[in-house]
Amino acid sequence: MSKLPNITTSIFSVMSQLANEHGAINLSQGFPNFPVDCRLLDSVKQLLHENVHQYTPMAGLPILLEKIAQQTQKQYGRKVNPNTEILITAGATQGIYTAINAWIQTGDEVIVLDPCYDSYEPSILMAGGKAVHVALNPDYTPNFNQIEAAISSKTKMLIINNPHNPTGKIWNEQDFEALETILDKHPQIILLSDEVYEYISFAQPHISCNSREKLVHKTVVVSSFGKSLHITGWKMGYLIAPENLLNEIKKVHQFLVFSVNSVAQNSIAAYLDIVNLEEVKAMYQRKKEYFSSLLQNSKLQLLPCEGTYFQVVDYSTISKQNDVDFAKELITKHGVAAIPISVFYENKTDYKRLRFCFAKTDETLELAAEKLNRI
Fold first, then answer.
1. What is the CATH number of domain 11-36+277-372?
2. Which residues form the Aminotransferase class I/classII large domain (predicted)?
3. Is the pLDDT score of 293 beyond 90?
4. How far apart are CA 179 and CA 61, in angstroms?
C-alpha cells in the first residue's frame, strides 16, 4: 500500500517535460540558465586537486559553518553557534523533510499556507502527520484569523515561506507581529520558516525569522545556497535552529544523507569570502524589471513581485480556461512554459494565474516575451 496514494508527478516535472517535447521556452521550473560565477568555478577547479574528497563531519564542514554564522550575524544581527545551531543539508528540500520528520509524529498536525510549495505535504505525510491547509488572502497576504482558527491541541508545527514561492509576496513587520502574538499563545508550535529566496527581495526588505527575538528559540530557518548562488543542481542548503531543535533534526539527517558533498562545501566556503550577496538582489531586480518591461504591451496582467525570481500573471482577459489547461496550451500553441498556481492549493483554487521564472538570460526572456506578446 502506498504511503503517498494521492501524490502524483510534480507539476515542475510535468511542465518541463512538456516543454522539452514541444521545444518551448521553459520559464516554468525555477532554475537559472545563465553561467555560474567564474570565481566559484575557479574555486572548484582548484579544490579538485586537493584533499577534499572524503566525508565531512555530519553537521557540515567546520569552516563553512563558521562562514554561515558570520554571514547570519552580518545580515540579520543574530549570533549563531556554528558548532550547535547550523546543519548543512543536501538542498533545502531535504532540510525541510528532515526537520518535519524529526519533530512530527503520528497524529500531529502541521499548518501550511496555500498556495504552498509542493514538498511540504508529502514530508508531513511521510512522518505520519496531517497537513492543515489555510489559504492566504487573494493578494497572498496571510490571514491570521484563519491561521489561529486552524490551531488545535494537535498542532505541532506551522510552515511559512518568505519570500514566497510561487507568488513573490514578502511578509511585513505587521505580519510578523501578528504571528508572534499567535505563537505566544501556543508555545508548543514549532515554526518552520522557508527562506530560500532570502537574498532576492526588491522594494520591500526581507524580514528573516533570524532577526525576530520572539521567534528564534522556536524556529527552524531553511536557507539555500542553490538559490542564493545560482547553483540549484548542487543541492546545497542549510538549517539554522536552536540546539534543542537541531539535535533532533541531526538524528534524522545522519541516517538520511549523513554528510553533504565535500567538494561543494569547500568551494562555497572559499567563495563566501569574495562574493557580495547584495549583488544577487540587484541582479534579479534588473531581470524582474526587464521582464516586466518586455511584457508591458501584452494582455497579461502582472501582479506585484516583491521577492523571489518568479513573476505571477493574470491571464483572465485572454482565456477562461482553468490554469492547468491554459498552461499546457501556452506550451503547445505558443511555445512558452509556465506553472499554474492552482496546483499549489489543496482545493485547486483557480484565479487564472500563472508563474513565470525570470532567472534566465536576457535572450531567453526576450524570446519568451515575443511569443507572449502575440497572444
1. 3.90.1150.10
2. 25-372
3. yes
4. 34
